[in-house]
Amino acid sequence: MITPIIDLHCHSTISDGLFSPTELVKYAHSKGVQVLALTDHDDIDGLPQAREQASALGMVFINGVEISVTWQKRTLHIVGLNFDHKNYTLADSLTKIREGRDARAIKIAHGLGMAGIMGALEGARSYCKDGSVGRIHFAQYLAEKGHAKDVKSVFKKFLTPGKPGYVEHVWADLTEAVSWIKGAGGVAVIAHPGRYDMGAKLYPRLMNDFKLAGGEAIEVVSGSQDPSQTEYFAKIANEFGFFASCGSDFHGPGISFRQMGQKQIIPPNCKPVWEKWPDIKKLTQSNHKDIY
Ligand code: AMP
Ligand code: MN
Ligand code: MN
Ligand code: MN
């Protein structure tokens, strides 16, 4: 049996990805992905379109979202998987987060204006096809205008703490975000835990708070964290009784270095999050060791 490629984290034009939900599913299919979750930042509007395309291609599709959260004054991302996308509380809460995003975009443009960069809001909007303006859209515009050589360098120079286009922002509360996901019947997952750089004391505190809130999984394998971190997060997952999830965090060719369809391995001592989902479990029952 050919082991399926599972990708439970990626983005479309509904947030800061380059492909529309339909294009993204087609692209994932062309890269060999068989089980896909679309996880746009604070937005679930792409799910029906993506599901339709996935079904036309015979792929398994999982509803997803990546919620921006503030915990201990830090921004974290919580992925929600396999929820009812018609749940009112979830949809309404995400709308409120996006309103905050829009207000933040005005402040980012103001900061950039103070640094002599004019017209950044309109410029960022021109890169934002369907959803709310995020930092990537500013980065694309600033790179186009030659303020730095590429998106990554724009982040470094303008959009990270201490830089002119960085704005402190209060996102959703961790416990609330988990409760919206669970209330809609889904599983809450800490996205790319290796990105937060919190140290040996804070990580267990986060895991503890997340568990108390009802969180059930962490991304042990992510295109957004170094593979050398897998072992540490596999250990944490087992210590706290979390399921392990995995995903590319793909945004589009050129916009991020993460690729789709690359094989990454969930350590055999972890319980994959799809053990909770009979459809996928069936696909993977031969051996989950070499699935990603
Ligand atoms: P936002 O939610 O608008 O603050 O933007 C966060 C998004 O920006 C992340 O999901 C990534 O897609 C992207 N991002 C963050 N840091 C970087 C970086 N250093 N280089 C490229 N993209 C980044
Ligand atoms: Mn993003
Ligand atoms: Mn993220
Ligand atoms: Mn992401």
Automatic annotation (TrEMBL):
Molecular function per GO: 5'-3' DNA exonuclease activity; 5'-3' RNA exonuclease activity
Cross-referenced InterPro entries: 35NBP, PHP_dom, PHP_domain, Pol/His_phosphatase_N, Pol/histidinol_Pase-like
Residue span, Polymerase/histidinol phosphatase N-terminal domain: 6-71
Alphabetized PANTHER family for the sequence: EXONUCLEASE, POLYMERASE_HISTIDINOL PHOSPHATASE N-TERMINAL DOMAIN-CONTAINING PROTEIN
Protein name: PHP-like protein
Species, as recorded: Methylophilales bacterium HTCC2181
